[in-house]
Design brief:
Radius of gyration: 12 Å
CATH superfamily: Tyrosine recombinase, N-terminal domain
Helix content: over 70%
Order of helices and strands: HHHH
CATH class: Mainly Alpha
Number of helices: 4
CATH architecture: Orthogonal Bundle
Number of domains: 1
Number of strands: 0
Length: 82
């Protein structure tokens, strides 16, 4: 399976900033879930509306806790800061 240049750039940035390995894995998990949820659209093509849709899906369909939603949001915000 080919590695995504976008995901690899996020991974490299997280490592350069010395984030923990667990944070790296968690952020990459939620970033991938976001991309899959929006049918493989690149995060740079999406905005707040898509983030709200994803967080709503997590809360209403997947029934995740608010802390899990917050973690997913932090991962998505991170993609915008890099």
């Amino acid at each position: 399976m080919a590695k995504s240049p976008f995901i690899e750039s996020i991974r490299a940035d997280l490592r350069a900033r010395r984030y923990s390995l667990q944070t790296e894995k968690t952020y990459l998990f939620w970033i991938r879930q976001f991309i899959y949820f929006h049918r493989m659209r690149h995060p740079n093509e999406m905005a707040n509306t898509e983030i709200e849709q994803f967080l709503s899906y997590l809360a209403n369909v997947r029934k995740v806790s608010s802390s899990t939603q917050n973690l997913a949001l932090c991962a998505l915000i991170y993609t915008q800061s890099t």
